[in-house]
Structure to design on (225 residues):
């Protein structure tokens, strides 16, 4: 892996997209090019696409999202799948996680390599979900509402939480208030309904749960259906 092939600023884009699995011009403007106009940001990402450093796909028309391009993939020596378009479940999951993790600059999403490095004891089937770490070192399991009923979201969240609490190291983190589950949903109204359903499922007795609203998630779910 010879990162020196890429210019430092281009490498920053590549590392960002690798971490979050996608980027948009709006997120690039706040995270990588603060103070630049959206027109200027769009010119930069267009150049990166022309140079095959990024790939462009449709998010919600007319907005696009970006994945790694062929040059970035070969430079990093990573799977070509990181350059492909995201599927109907992966796209809203990764988009919502991106918006949540980059809001406020107080946390970051863990890459797959970091999950394995920080949690080598985590069973493989539990390692593929998005995880974040906040500025205080708290581990967060991210669950994204993909359009099911509040009761369905609560049941899935409860099961995912219990699966992880069966891992002694995560149980210890939870007991020390260093682990929480984050549910990302589409509206304040649905957040309240999910919160009520989680209490009914007993999830909040076992682990701390935070519910955050990502309004634009609803557009992706409408597109998927």
């Amino acid at each position: 892996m010879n990162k020196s092939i890429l210019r430092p600023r281009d490498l920053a884009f590549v590392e960002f997209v690798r971490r979050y699995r996608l980027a948009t011009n709006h997120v690039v403007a706040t995270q990588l090019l603060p103070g630049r106009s959206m027109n200027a940001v769009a010119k930069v990402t267009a150049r990166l696409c022309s140079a095959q450093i990024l790939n462009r796909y449709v998010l919600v028309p007319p907005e696009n999202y970006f994945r790694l391009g062929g040059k970035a993939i070969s430079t990093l020596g990573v799977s070509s799948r990181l350059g492909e378009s995201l599927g109907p479940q992966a796209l809203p999951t990764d988009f919502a996680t991106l918006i949540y993790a980059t809001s406020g600059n107080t946390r970051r999403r863990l890459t797959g390599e970091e999950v394995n490095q920080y949690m080598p004891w985590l069973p493989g089937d539990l390692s593929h979900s998005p995880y974040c770490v906040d500025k205080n070192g708290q581990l967060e399991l991210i669950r994204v509402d993909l359009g099911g009923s509040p009761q369905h979201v609560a049941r899935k969240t409860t099961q995912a939480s219990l699966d992880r609490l069966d891992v002694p190291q995560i149980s210890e983190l939870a007991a020390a208030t260093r682990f929480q589950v984050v549910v990302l949903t589409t509206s304040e109204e649905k957040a309240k309904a999910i919160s009520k359903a989680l209490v009914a499922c007993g999830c909040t007795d076992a682990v701390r749960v935070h519910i955050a609203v990502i309004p634009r998630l609803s557009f992706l779910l409408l597109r998927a259906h």
Remarks:
- The chain has a mean pLDDT of 94.
- The first strand starts at residue 54 and ends at 58.
- The CA atoms of residues 107 and 153 lie 24 Å apart.
